[in-house]
Each structure stands twice: as C-alpha cells, then as structure tokens.
Amino acid sequence: MSAAGAGPMTRRELFKMIGMAAGGAAMYQAMSTLGYAAESPFKGPIDLSGAPKGASVLILGSGVAGMTAAYELRNAGYKVQILEYNNRPGGRNWSIRGGDSYTELGGYTQHCEFDKGLYINPGPWRIPYHHRGLLHYCKILGVPIEAFFQINYNAYLHSSKAFGGKPQRYREIKADYQGHVAELLSKATRQHSLDDAISKEDAEKLLESLRSWGALDKDFKYGKNLTSSERRGYEKDPGGGLTAVPIPSQPMGLSDVLDSGLWQGIPSGDNYDMQTALFQPVGGMGRIGEAFGRELGSVIRYNSKVTKIEQSERGVTATYVDTATGATHSASADWCLCTIPLPVLAQIPMNVGQKMAAAISAVPYASAIKVGLQFKRRFWEEDDHIYGGISYTDLPITNIGYPNCDYHSPGKGVLLGAYIWGLNAMEFTAMTPPERVMKAVEYGSQIHPQYKQEFDNGVAVAWHRSPFTMGCYGMWSSDARAKHYEDLCRIDGRIALAGEHASYLGGWQEGGVTSALDAIGRIHQRAVAQGSKA
User: Fold this and answer.
1) I need a surface site. Which of 23, 92, 243, 422 has the fewest CB within 10 A?
2) pLDDT at position 200 over 60
3) How far apart are CA 359 and CA 352, in angstroms?
4) Smallest Cα–Cα separation from 120: which of 95, 92, 88, 93?
5) Is there a contact between 9 and 2 (Cβ–Cβ < 8 Å)?
6) pLDDT tens across 252-263, in order?
7) What is the spatial distance between Cα 55 and Cα 241, in angstroms, rounded to a whole number?
C-alpha cells in the first residue's frame, strides 16, 4: 500500500523504499531499468551539415521535442513546418497565468484569476543540472534561469497518523533519525559487534565519523544539547544582549521517529534527478516554450488537430482540422517527425508497420494532477519562515511546493497546492476542477491552518483530461521497454517518433530534447543517402 494507504505502491514510493533499504545505487539502478533515471547523452549541438537542397520535414507537435527538432533542422537548411494542436507553443512545457483559460476533456473551462506575475507550472517544474540539452537551449534562446530548491530544511514532513497530525520540520526528523542511528551504530562498534566487518583502525574512524554525522556528544549519545540543536534547531535561538543564551531543543525518541514514517521523506533530495543544482526558468517553465515559439515564428501552425497521417515512398502527408474555423487542410513533406503523445497518437490513423503500431499502444501514460492555489498573502514566509522548497505529506495531495522566487513580495502568492499520483489522482480526476481545488485547500489546511482564511482562488489540471496528451508521461514497464522500445524509436519508412516516451529519461523534458536530436540525426542520414542517389 502507499504511504497514504490509498492504493497500490507507486513507483515513487517503491524507489524511495529501495533507496532507504539498499542505498542510492540500488535505487538508481531500479530507476534506470524502468527508464526513470539516466544521465543525459547530450554532448553539444548536433551536426546536420550537408542537408539535401529542398529537403523538407513535417513535425507534429510543438512541445520541447518538436521545437528542438524544428530549430536544428531549419538552421541546417531543411524546410520545416510544425502542426500544433494548441494555440500556443510548448506542449507540456506550460505555465498558467492570470487571464489564461484552459478547457479539459469533458468541456470544463477554467479561467485563471492569479495576480500579475504569478503562475503555476501544471507540467514540468524543475531542471536538473545534468540535463545539459535543455539548459543549452535555455542559454541560446536567452531564457534566464534561477535556483529551484528541492530540499528546504525548514519545510515540513507530515503524517496524518503521527504526532497528532502536527507537521514536523524536515531538519528535526533528519537530525533525530541520523542521531539515533549514529548512536546505535557507535554502540555496536564500541561493543565490538562489527569486528568481523571492519578493522580496529577503521572502527576508530567510524566512531569519529558517527559522532560528526549524528551530532553525538563525547559519550556517543544523542540527546538534548547544543550540538544536536545545531542540527534540529533550538527551543530558543541564540541572540544578542542579555537574552542571548540559547536553549537546546528536545529530540524526539527513536520509536516516535520510526513509527511516524516521516524518515521516508529524508532522501527526497538524494535521487540523481533531484540533486542540487536544480533550476527553473524565471517567470515559469512555459518561458522555454514561448522562447522557442518566438524563434520559430511562422514555422508553427497553431490550432491544428491532426486527424490522419499517411506515408508513401515519396513522402508523408498529415490531414488536420483548423480548430478555430473547422476547415480541413493537409500538409506534406519528405519526412515526418511525430511527437504527439502516444495515447493521442494511438487514435490517429497512420500507415506504419505492425511493430511501431504495437509499440505505440504498449505504453500507458501516468495519471497526475497539479493544483495551483493563490493566497491573499505569503503566509508560508511570514508565519512559517519557509522560503522555497517542498513539504511532504501522506495526505492525497502528496506535497506542497513553495515559490522559489520573489521572496518577501507584498500582496498575494501562489503555491503548488497538490501534486497527486496513482489512485488518488484517479479520484481527483473524477472531480470537477473547483472540487479539486477545494479538496486541496481542505487537505492543505492540515499542514498550514492559514489555508482556509487566506485562500483566494485556484486552478487544477488533471493530465488524463488533457486533450493534447491524455496523460502525464509514458510509463514503461521493464518488459514493455525490452519488447517495444527499439520498435518505437526506429524510423518506419519516412516517419520517426520523438518525445520523452522515446527516451530513457521518461517524464523529463531532457528526454524530449535528446530523443528529438537522435531522431533527426537518423532522418538526416537517410535524407543525405537518398539525396546522393538522386
């Protein structure tokens, strides 16, 4: 069961358990096997020199993958056109701001009422430092970036079943867990219980390292003192003048820490994809898609819903409907790069081989929901002294993300009020957007009592109701990846696929970037080979 007791264990919970039980290396191996963690293969700009004169490529979808491909192909001399379903570039690279409207499957339209300058990223919201491809395009497109904080020691870890439902500071749980474990290990070491595992010299080094790691006293005990308070915080902080003397805080007992389950949140920043430094574009993740869109200009045709894809020995033609006018049109090119998410693509007639068709149908998409909540003031800073980072909870909302920018700004502020997965996401998807928002407020008030009084308005995006993706990202199983991954990525005639689903960086924009570069590199090789025969 999940930590919230609401259904089967999610992949995120599985990886966390593996990491706690067997260490980061084992967790990373498990994530890599399923395509959830891998180092980006990006080594620099792609070489597409020698493009055949007049060669053309039709790209379906102006997400990060499609626009990366269009940018490089156009610069290499190819004739490029993108057909995009939405009236904006970016796909899942998207920020919702005040004045924006969004209509989900089922017809419900939300009108965002956030104040100017405030936003929520319903899709990706962070960029790891090792996602070099995406960062490369941020740099060349002039998209400024700023720090994103995965870990904030003053944010909360919360269990509705522990400590009377009162949230605990991350630093307190981390310090007490480490302190008690260090004391136990030091006791075992001093009692020579580890003699078969380590030498006498190493035992002495281990003891000293445990004293430092766990903030133990001279007797290798973890308790209420100034040393432990330097980690977990003080009952009364050091100050100046006659009231300067600090008062140590009382650590929680080991049983209390273990029974709470909050120790599961300690390694949330240890995963390879979550390690510092992490970044976000200034002004919202959608700034990347917007910058690509400005750069590509008329290359992108918006409001174009693809209804059929046909290829022959000579080229590829896509039939599409102009969603603004209802008129049907077609676009043709020598080659086609399709970045349409697989649940949507599976419903579009396309004459490819049985292997690619089977691969397209083999990958389900994750259910996920994000809720953005605007409040009348930034109470998390003013009252709780939380500046950026994430609080974690066993409630269905999973976490609360605090803005990593504009600290001490007057007026209103926006939180990520929920990032929901699995069965809880299915339950929230069945609600109307206003119901999702109010549920997030209800749950969040268990962590921040100020919620109900300070709440102003909100938006909620359920990705299974997104008409242009019908899900959050591709969820490969190890068996499906072994059977279908190469068939999905291979060029079929004159059609190639790209996107995070065609990568080992599933769910990350870097997967879209690197898969697009790989696909157009292979298209270029074929185009050059065919051009030399002409």
Assistant:
1) 243
2) yes
3) 11
4) 95
5) yes
6) 999 999 999 999
7) 77
